[in-house]
Amino acid sequence: MTTATSPPRVALPEFDHGRAGLGDQVRSEWTKLRSVRSTWICLVIIVVAGIGLSALVSNIEAGRWAVLGFGDRAQFDPVRFSQTGEFLSQFVVGVLGALIITSEYATGSIRTTLSTTSRRTTVLAAKLLVIGAVIFAVSEVTAFASFFVGQAVLLAHGGKALPAGSTILDQVHSATIPVVSITDGGALRAVFLCGVYLLLLTLLACAIGFVIRHTAGAISAFVGILLVLPLIVQILPSNLSSSFEKFLPSNLGLAMILVTSRKTDFAGVLLTPWAAAGLLALYTAAVVVLAGWLLVRRDA
Amino acid sequence: MPVITATRITKTYGSTRAVDALSFDVRPGVVTGFLGPNGSGKSTTMRIVMGLDRPDSGVVTINGKRFGELRWPLREVGALLEAKALHPGRTAYDHLLSMAHTNAVPKGRVDEVLGLVGLETVARRRVGKYSLGMSQRLGIASALLGDPGVLLFDEPVNGLDPEGILWVRTLLQGLAAEGRTIFVSSHLMSEMALTATNLVVIGRGQLIAETTVEDFIASNTEATVRVRSPGVEALAAALRDAGAVVVLHDDGELLVTGFDAARIGDVAHSAGVALHELSPLQASLEEVFMELTSDMVDFHGHSPIEVAT
Asked: Is A233 helix (H, G, I), strand (E, B) or coil?
């Protein structure tokens, strides 16, 4: 083998001016994200689980409508049934969000990443932008597809849309399975916020990954926040737990997808959808700031 | 004018002082070897140069700038730090492409460096299936990707076969001949003797020597001269009388230290003894290095016999 190192035949652009920036890092992070199998597996699970569970659960619930009592009929929420897959997807996006940074720490390739940039926060920003954009796009498409599939299943069971302005009482007394149109009060917002919820959880998990730097640790922390924290809050004295409960990330997610125009039983127990989205964004921003602060200060 | 300048860098992990007030310069145009036993702080130093670890005190500059001040790091300094630090599920091509994007290096350069290290036929294979030698070549490709003027290699010949070692040696010398600054670490002194021109030698994080390979050997070796003569006994006695240290081997070979060849010849002449051989011996870099760092190695190996007694 020869040692032809010599000046490259492929001319590199001048680098007397400018600097490696966010745009360059975003292209790099996109290349990294698309070039590993786990990304595509996670995205396929989100889409398939989202649409599949929507069809399955809507089908089951449609079959039960005729035998439901008044209380259960009041709880009958065609929008929420169509978004059942979100419960599974929140863990999938958490794993993917954490993995894109913890896998770099696990393999040591974080040192390659950080030795190509002199501003470490650029790496954090680029990762959040890329994973956020991908998850948001896939989640929104899945949420809307799931919504329409779910309503189509209810229609196939003889469901009918309730007249505009119907209350929860109209739903309870309805002879047919209530089907929701995307233009019905709150439906569009609820479906849209499903994607926002998954987006915020992805960014939260990624930021946790930057802080904890170990795959198992980061995913445990993420799952703990969604599943274990509510259990801990529940065993607190009831006056305490009821004041904390609505601020739990999992309940913020619930608040974001409820179609509250027909719901009364959660009033006061949950925040309003947009307030819930805002608070979850605030939690996420706080962990992102911590992640950036640590990334700049810690040894790689 | 040195390109890499380290000034009194110190780094402590817990209670271990990995690098201790270390200062050195690395100049362009030659290969500078960075020598030290395992655990002497070479890798820590290299991570500090690359801005990955922050020293407790002291500063390292590349072309007069700290790493954090470089605007196009990949194009100014390339490094092979750990060959196996790769996502196993990614192909070599995608790994290099993701690096190239960070500093606006065109795609064509990725193919070029893959060809340069001889990985073009396996570039689309996942790197998890690579041997250590292939990973080393990929690491060298990533260091060269931005065509930088400064290159750092941490133990680049690990896992390479003899042909690969020769290839790396020639590559490093070729890069240096192009005027680049090459800083390459190794715990293999014999390898450095063949590859490097300048040396930075450390032990337990401290500087032992900063010199050229030639001077390092010369100044740390007590000259030994091998002498053969039909009258060894008489010659040995004469040399001892003159103050030299003489070892007489069974096969009639004399090893003389303290006197250079000319003086031994003079002594032989005045003693009236003929000489059949008079050859100065040069200690290998390995021997010199072992001698110098023997009290600076953290983990000494013991032979089983030693332990038994």
From this structure: helix
